[in-house]
Amino acid sequence: MNILVTGATGYIGKRLIPFLLHEGHTVICVVRDRLRADKSYAEDDNIFVIEGDFLKPETLLNIPKKIDVAYYLIHSMSNSSKDFESLEERCAVNFKNYLETTGVKQVIYLGGITNEEKLSKHLRSRKNVEDRLVSEQYALTIFKAGIIVGSGSSSFEIIRDLVEKLPFMIAPKWLNTKTQPLAVRDVLAFLSRAAGNEKLYNQTYDVFGPEVITYKEMLLQFAEVRGLKRYILTVPVMTPKLSSYWLYFVTSTSYKLATTLVDSMGIQIIGKTSDINTLLNVTPLTYKEAVALAFEKIEQNSIISSWKDSMVSSGRLGNQLHKYINVPKYGCFKDYKERPVIDTQKTIDKIWAIGGTTGWYYGNFLWRIRGYVDKLFGGIGLRRGRTSPTDLDAGDALDFWRVIFADKKQQKLLLYAEMRLPGEAWLEFKIEDGLLKQTATFRPRGLWGRLYWYSVLPFHGFIFRGMINKLVNVES
């Protein structure tokens, strides 16, 4: 079958595509920015990447008409936009309007379980998207999931941060809210096996794990899997705002995502039973099994996607990397250094391993201080780290940077700063004519931007000099 996948660079979409290819389908991926598409797609004859934005109907004309099944996986956990509900509605309406001009027979949508009258802003928006996708031209299959557990998922990484950093927690009362976590592997099984299944046409199913547990129990069971002893005291006095700050300062989440999560976590999410497990032959894993499987993937360095690489983890760039790929030349301050390269491959490997647990090769304590300062002023700090210790692709998060361009063949890596700054900053590594050329570019915004540059200039001298020296020193 010809299958259209929207949200192809997102957490679920990126993992679903290999399942569909394994079943022998042809996959058409719609992405807002072609730079973010997996490089391996260009080498597979069964994948076609099309650039399109469902907020802009005129960009959808290149989507082929010959489509059998389409997945709608577009949604945002960010509330950075005050009208994100109307934006999600517009995306759904534009998707539906275009799909009705194609030969699509089935649309599959992954939403959230909504079983209470009082819904969070996030779940209310997902319910509204469901309603907007209904059509007389195609059959709609809706899966509604609660907490998704898997390596790189936002819930998994936030719980991991809390459990591994805090032996004792004084936590908000919403930790006693009940939910039914579902392994990401099971989510993918439901989605992939539903394609073309006429028994599921115009049906809605809640999909969930086999246990009803509280968020507190999720934390404690996570600790058991990790072999850690943790103690949790819940208190009724922590307001939603304080809860959001608690998550923000302890975990790698952004403040805006933390507020969205807190808004959702106060609402009980219990799915309605159905025969969907039997229909699709899926036996959902327990929560502990899902956590253990996630750590197997982490230890094997085989995390396919992570919420940290989503643009909503910072909110600075929007969704179009190409706007930042041309580093400005005028009205900027620059720190340029070059060194002869002794061993090109080893230097490239060092560049591609920069940040995260590896660090920045020189003055790491100063990088950490800069991260703490950024976090204090509402930025993302260094806590995102990186998804893979050795691989980098356009769109990946790298501490408080975003990868704009990464190509080992061209021997070039370009990063854009997502930290709090009175201006914009780029950091480029490029090997040309046997030289490693390292350029830090800062485009100031007003007087404060210029004062900022001169205030950090003394540190740049030895930090960037020490970094480039380490990168070309193959013995270290």
Plain-language structure description:
The chain has 476 residues and is α/β, with parallel strands linked by helices. 34% of the residues lie in helices and 21% in strands. The protein has 13 helices and 19 strands. It has helices at 11-22, 84-99, 121-133, 154-165, 184-194, 215-226, 240-250, 255-265, 276-279, 287-299, 344-352, 364-376, 446-472; strands at residues 2-6, 26-31, 47-51, 69-72, 106-112, 139-145, 148-149, 168-172, 178-179, 182-183, 203-207, 213-214, 231-235, 333-340, 397-398, 401-407, 412-417, 423-432, 435-444. The strands form 5 sheets. It has a 7-stranded parallel sheet, sandwiched between helices. A 6-stranded antiparallel sheet has the order 14-19-18-17-16-15. Helix 1 (11-22) crosses helix 5 and helix 7 (240-250) packs across helix 8 (255-265).
Which features would summarize this protein structure in a list?
19 strands, 476 residues, 7-stranded parallel beta sheet, alpha/beta, 34% helix, 6-stranded antiparallel beta sheet
Layout of helices and strands:
Elements: E1 2-6, H1 11-22, E2 26-31, E3 47-51, E4 69-72, H2 84-99, E5 106-112, H3 121-133, E6 139-145, E7 148-149, H4 154-165, E8 168-172, E9 178-179, E10 182-183, H5 184-194, E11 203-207, E12 213-214, H6 215-226, E13 231-235, H7 240-250, H8 255-265, H9 276-279, H10 287-299, E14 333-340, H11 344-352, H12 364-376, E15 397-398, E16 401-407, E17 412-417, E18 423-432, E19 435-444, H13 446-472
Helix pairs in contact: 1-5, 2-3, 4-6, 6-10, 7-8
